């Protein structure tokens, strides 16, 4: 027992050291452009970006509370907000690979079973994509019928909308019909020879099964699913307002709805291009859509500040939460070791 406590303590301290090493690497490479942009940004603009980023996190906390409350009533808005930031922290340090695992792990710590946590995480993704698709469709209609300019790369935008719609339709079809899910698994195992691909299908199957459990639980209170949908629509407004806030000072002619639509198209397209956590694809698509309107310099500034609010700010909060959580864990383990040492000395 004593040996086990010491091993856990060493592992936790080692994990913290490894994470600090990854952070130093990220600060020197991936995040240095964002940091320089923050230094050069006027204080009022930066404050507005942080405020919008924080409001998104708060509304996201309510969104997660609504989804998880069917399983555990004690989940609070603060818990939901920390779940979002905790997964954002792991998304950055694992380069996207640990996002879902960390979110499920957080829910498990709050009392949800693993399958319930997977269900809430899957529902979280589906509702986000439904809200994103809604705003993209509204923005496209506005650009086509109420704007004097047709959005740049309209064909690529339509591809992103169709691809996102396809993901939602497939997930919902698998979720709402057990027969479709069984057919999907049988068909996949018949034609997929690779063990790795089969394991991937099994993981998807687990997520779909857990999503069905979450949906069944939430649909017992039918108005709840509509509330979750509205909250997801509302939360995106805060992030999608950031580029306009950053750009309007130098481009007073910029139309808010046009800018809102372009960032919406950027996000939906980035999610349709397969890269880790959509990181590289977002920068590419954002500059592709925004650069023709306001030039490279301003487009890059808006992109970096949006990345800060949507990517780095939740990470910072998640990092603080992680340190606080690890501090409590390490203190508990030190107390256990001291208690075990006292017991050993008394026996001696």
Which ranges are low-confidence, i.e. pLDDT below 50, for 5 or more consecutive residues?
A: none
Give the oligomeric state: single chain
How much helicity do the residues have? Answer: over 70%
Mean pLDDT: 83
| Individual helix count | 12
Sheet having the most strands: none
Strand content bin:
under 5%
| Broad shape | globular
Distance between the termini: 17 Å
Produce the secondary structure layout.
Elements lengths: L1 H27 L3 H9 L2 H26 L8 H17 L5 H11 L4 H32 L8 H23 L1 H14 L3 H25 L2 H26 L8 H15 L8 H69 L1
Notable characteristics:
mainly alpha; 348 residues; 0% strand; single chain
TL;DR?
The chain is mainly alpha-helical and 348 residues long. 84% of the residues lie in helices and 0% in strands.
Write structural notes for this entry.
The chain has one domain. It contains 12 helices and no strands. Helix 3 (43-68) packs across helix 6 and helix 3 packs antiparallel against helix 10 (222-247). The longest helix has 69 residues, at 279-347. The chain is globular, with a radius of gyration of 23 Å. The protein has helices spanning 2-28, 32-40, 43-68, 77-93, 99-109, 114-145, 154-176, 178-191, 195-219, 222-247, 256-270, 279-347. The protein is mostly helical and 348 residues long.
């Amino acid at each position: 027992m004593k040996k086990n406590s010491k091993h856990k303590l060493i592992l936790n301290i080692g994990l913290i050291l490894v994470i600090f090493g990854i952070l130093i690497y990220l600060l020197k490479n991936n995040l240095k452009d964002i940091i320089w942009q923050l230094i050069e940004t006027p204080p009022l603009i930066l404050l507005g970006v942080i405020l919008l980023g924080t409001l998104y996190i708060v509304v996201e906390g309510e969104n997660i509370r609504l989804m998880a409350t069917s399983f555990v009533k004690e989940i609070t808005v603060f818990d939901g907000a920390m779940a979002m930031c905790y997964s954002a922290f792991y998304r950055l340090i694992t380069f996207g690979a640990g996002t879902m695992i960390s979110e499920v792990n957080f829910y498990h710590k709050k009392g949800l079973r693993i399958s319930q946590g997977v269900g809430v995480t899957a529902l979280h993704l589906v509702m986000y994509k439904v809200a994103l698709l809604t705003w993209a469709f509204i923005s496209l209609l506005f650009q086509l019928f109420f704007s004097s300019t047709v959005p740049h790369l309209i064909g690529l935008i339509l591809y992103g909308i169709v691809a996102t719609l396809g993901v939602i339709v497939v997930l919902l079809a698998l979720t709402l019909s057990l027969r479709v899910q069984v057919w999907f698994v049988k068909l996949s195992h018949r034609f997929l020879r690779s063990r790795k691909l089969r394991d991937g299908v099994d993981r998807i199957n687990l997520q779909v099964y857990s999503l069905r459990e979450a949906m069944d639980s939430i649909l017992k209170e039918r108005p709840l699913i509509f509330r979750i949908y509205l909250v997801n629509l509302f939360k995106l407004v805060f992030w999608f307002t950031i580029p306009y806030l950053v750009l309007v000072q130098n481009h007073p002619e910029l139309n808010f709805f046009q800018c809102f639509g372009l960032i919406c198209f950027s996000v939906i397209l980035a999610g349709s291009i397969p890269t880790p956590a959509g990181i590289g694809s977002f920068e590419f698509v954002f500059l592709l859509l925004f650069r023709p309107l306001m030039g490279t310099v301003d487009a890059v500034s808006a992109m970096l500040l949006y990345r800060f609010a949507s990517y780095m700010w939740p990470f910072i909060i998640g990092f603080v939460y992680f340190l606080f959580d690890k501090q409590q864990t390490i203190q508990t383990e030190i107390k256990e070791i001291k208690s075990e040492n006292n017991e050993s000395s008394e026996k001696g």
